[in-house]
């Protein structure tokens, strides 16, 4: 458990230490055995994330060979903006999955939040206030999920399956009752519409938002006690409870974070597409969970990082954009996503088996 | 691996369930009885208050709508009882429907197409079973993957086209009724399958072994059950039955499309959980599942007749699902609290906690539960 829990520490260290050639890894390892075990785990996690990166690079290179214009500035910006919504959702999902739960309602939450933001903006609410309200709507949905899961102690898969329906129903009921089935770009204030095209040093603002979310959540999970406790809960809920971790409160908080980030994603969706109806984000939950799983977040909790999930989101988005360029039918996209999920869990399984064997061998030799 | 899923199991139910088999049997029955009672109550109220609900025509529509859900719920219930899950059933429906359309389009007769589709379903189920039992991967993750994979392949096969020129004789048979009763013909073979599944689950050693696996996979293995092989074949059967659902779906709507039955897995699982089957395995019965599916179907049907917008139906479906899992949890906690107070006698049910300070609340909490078991 301790090795699994400490894994994300490793992901961040080599990332800053420029892993390719520097090889500063063996510095601490030779003397201390637990240190070497941990280093082994770190290396595996790095291998895992470099693997996604390699797949991503391979895909991009293949696509560029097929169509050199794939790497044009505008195309890259479009790709990053598309990936950023999925990335924000995947970051929230990671926090929940790490605690051995799952949040299937994020697609519906995104839709409700996007519609709420749009409605407020049409009614003349100032942009910052509407953005905050969108996030708050998401956080409320997350609170609802969290209360049912943590207080009533009901499996999250079932609860969020229920709220997936319920929140979507609320969304479409609101849309049909308010007499505004669709919010069009013409109805939205120009200040809000400018967000989609805004750039800082050529980088789209929406992408920067996603990066900020990933770094913030990743830092919290890695360096804060409450973040570490989430890994403990996911590794073994009973042991976590016995060691004094407030499991219910932490799980509740994880759902609120996931909901709030889905709300933020809803605002980003509204800013990007500017045409909103009650179907926004339908079916997204599949791609969000897929992004996390492909990124190495174990579906039964206790291991994985937001950075991996973000890479997974980027990879899934790139596949969608690359298929037509490679001359393949875009209908292959969903099949590719499915195959990728299967490949990722098989890879994770074999990596963890090999790791367990190596650690066991090491202990035997040591004793 | 399966042990991983258990820690969150309802705390209040396990201790009550262990000691005597008699009380365990009654507990198993009580979930069924509650949901069946709710269904009967709802049907009576709806028949009296909703205009046209009890008509033969409407009954036919209602049954046609739940046929595929009940059909797929049969093997999926067995899968969930063992503590696994299969989220890919609706995608299997979609892929077999797409393949059926494509094969028919390319000129094969339906008599050849249908067995081929069933074979395809068996293969799709075997893929799930292989990943879960041979590679030891969590079925939740595997079938999320195949959910996307199979649906994607359906689109690869048929794209956004639709094949609709199936022979009239087949498509009218799919929606025809028995005589003038409005009850669809397909209900007869479906009932046969329901009975078959019910017997297998509740009256054979195989069925008992499924519950054993769901309660403790290790214990089941030690008692000589080949857990891996049983689960593998359960996934294969689920694939075949889902393909059958795809064939029927195609004939019933007279149209093969890649997006057929999209999202149906949620409705099937909702029906199963509403019927009192535990998502962690080891608990639940087929009667409850049947009642759950019919309840969901008739609630939607009645609301539609009342001109309630489709949006509200989703809220109701989701709400019912959440209530269905929260209610037994709360009831179990109330029960365990009332049972914990007398402390001494573990033979709780008959022991009246008369000297206790709360005589009014305790029987109130306990008596209805017992009555439910006997109903």
From TrEMBL, chain A:
Name under which the protein is recorded: Autoinducer 2 import system permease protein LsrC
Coiled-coil stretches: none
Residue numbers spanned by region Disordered: 1-35
Compositionally biased residues, Low complexity: 11-31
The organism's taxonomic lineage, starting at the top: Bacteria, Bacillati, Actinomycetota, Actinomycetes, Geodermatophilales
Short name of any one Pfam family annotated for the protein: BPD_transp_2
Compartments reported by the entry: Cell membrane
Topology in membrane: Multi-pass membrane protein
Function: Part of the ABC transporter complex LsrABCD involved in autoinducer 2 (AI-2) import. Probably responsible for the translocation of the substrate across the membrane.
GO molecular function annotations of the record: transmembrane transporter activity
Keywords: Cell inner membrane, Cell membrane, Membrane, Transmembrane, Transmembrane helix, Transport
Automatic annotation (TrEMBL), chain B:
Subcellular location: Cell membrane
Superkingdom assignment: Bacteria
GO cellular component: plasma membrane
Keyword Transmembrane: yes
Membrane topology: Multi-pass membrane protein
InterPro entries linked: ABC_transp_permease
Transmembrane regions listed in the UniProt entry: 33-54, 61-81, 112-131, 137-158, 170-203, 232-251, 272-297, 312-332
Single GO MF descriptor: transmembrane transporter activity
UniProt keyword annotation of Membrane present: yes
Chief location bin: membrane
Record field: compositional bias (Pro residues): 343-353
Matching CDD domains: TM_PBP1_transp_AraH_like
Record's keyword terms, sorted: Cell inner membrane, Cell membrane, Membrane, Transmembrane, Transmembrane helix, Transport
Coiled coil: none
Region (Disordered): 335-375
Name of protein: Autoinducer 2 import system permease protein LsrD
């Amino acid at each position: 458990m301790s090795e699994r829990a400490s894994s994300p520490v490793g992901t961040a260290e080599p990332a800053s230490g420029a892993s390719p050639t520097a090889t500063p890894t063996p510095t601490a390892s030779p003397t201390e055995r637990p240190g070497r075990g941990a280093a082994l785990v770190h290396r595996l996690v790095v291998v895992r994330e470099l693997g996604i990166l390699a797949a991503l690079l391979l895909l991009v290179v293949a696509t560029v060979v097929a169509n050199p214009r794939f790497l044009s500035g505008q195309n890259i910006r479009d790709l990053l903006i598309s990936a950023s919504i999925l990335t924000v959702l995947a970051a929230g999902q990671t926090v929940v999955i790490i605690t051995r739960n799952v949040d299937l309602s994020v697609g519906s939450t995104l839709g409700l939040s996007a519609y709420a933001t749009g409605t407020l903006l049409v009614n003349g609410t100032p942009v910052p206030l509407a953005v905050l309200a969108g996030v708050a709507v998401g956080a409320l949905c997350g609170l609802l999920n969290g209360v049912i899961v943590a207080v009533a102690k009901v499996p999250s898969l079932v609860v969020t399956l229920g709220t997936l329906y319920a929140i979507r129903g609320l969304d479409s009921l609101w849309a049909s009752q308010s007499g505004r089935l669709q919010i069009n770009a013409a109805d939205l204030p120009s200040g809000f519409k400018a967000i989609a095209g805004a750039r800082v040093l050529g980088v789209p603002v929406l992408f920067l938002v996603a990066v900020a979310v990933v770094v913030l959540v990743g830092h919290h999970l890695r360096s804060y006690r409450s973040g570490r406790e989430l890994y403990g809960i996911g590794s073994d809920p009973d042991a976590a409870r016995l060691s004094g971790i407030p499991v219910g409160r932490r799980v509740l908080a994880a759902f609120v974070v996931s909901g709030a980030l889905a709300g933020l994603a809803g605002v980003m969706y509204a800013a990007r597409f500017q045409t909103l109806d009650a179907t926004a984000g339908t079916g997204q939950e599949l791609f969000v969970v897929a992004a996390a799983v492909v990124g190495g977040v174990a579906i039964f909790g206790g291991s994985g990082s937001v950075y991996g999930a973000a890479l997974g989101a980027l990879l899934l988005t790139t596949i969608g954009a690359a298929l037509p360029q490679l001359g393949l039918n875009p209908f292959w996209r969903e099949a590719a996503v499915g195959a990728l999920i299967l490949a990722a869990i098989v890879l994770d399984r074999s990596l963890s088996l090999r790791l367990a064997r190596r650690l066991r061998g090491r202990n035997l030799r040591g004793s | 691996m399966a042990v991983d899923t258990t820690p969150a199991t309802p705390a209040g139910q396990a201790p009550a369930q262990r000691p005597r088999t008699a009380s365990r049997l009654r507990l198993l029955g009580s979930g069924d009885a509650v949901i069946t009672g709710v269904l009967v109550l709802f049907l009576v109220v709806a028949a009296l208050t909703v205009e046209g609900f009890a008509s033969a025509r409407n009954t036919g529509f209602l049954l046609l709508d739940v046929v595929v859900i009940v059909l797929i719920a049969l093997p999926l219930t067995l899968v969930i009882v063992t503590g696994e899950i299969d989220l890919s059933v609706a995608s299997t429906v979609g892929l077999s429907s797409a393949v059926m359309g494509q094969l028919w389009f390319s000129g094969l007769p339906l008599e050849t197409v249908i067995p081929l589709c069933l074979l395809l379903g068996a293969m799709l189920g075997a893929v799930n079973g292989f990943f879960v039992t041979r590679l030891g991967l969590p079925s939740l993750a595997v079938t999320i993957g195949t959910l996307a994979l199979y649906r994607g392949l359906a689109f690869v096969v048929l794209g956004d086209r639709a094949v609709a020129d199936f022979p009239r004789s087949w498509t009218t048979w799919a929606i025809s009724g028995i005589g003038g009763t409005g009850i669809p013909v397909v209900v007869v073979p479906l009932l046969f399958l329901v009975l078959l599944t019910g017997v297998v689950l509740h009256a054979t050693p195989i069925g008992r072994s499924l519950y054993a696996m769901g309660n403790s996979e290790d214990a089941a293995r030690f008692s000589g059950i080949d857990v891996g092989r049983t689960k593998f074949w359960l996934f294969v059967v689920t694939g075949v039955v889902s393909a059958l659902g795809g064939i029927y779906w195609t004939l019933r709507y007279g149209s093969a499309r890649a997006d057929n039955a999209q999202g149906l897995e949620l409705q099937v699982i909702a029906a199963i959980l509403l019927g009192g089957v535990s998502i962690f395995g080891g608990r639940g019965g087929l009667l409850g599942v049947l009642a759950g599916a019919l309840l969901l179907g008739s609630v939607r049907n009645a609301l539609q007749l009342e001109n309630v917008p489709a949006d509200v139906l989703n809220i109701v479906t989701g709400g019912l699902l959440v209530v269905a899992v929260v209610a037994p949890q709360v009831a179990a906690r109330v029960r365990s609290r009332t049972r914990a107070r007398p402390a001494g006698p573990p033979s709780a049910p008959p022991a009246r906690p008369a000297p206790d300070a709360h005589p009014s609340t305790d029987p109130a909490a306990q008596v209805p539960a017992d009555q439910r078991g006997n109903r």
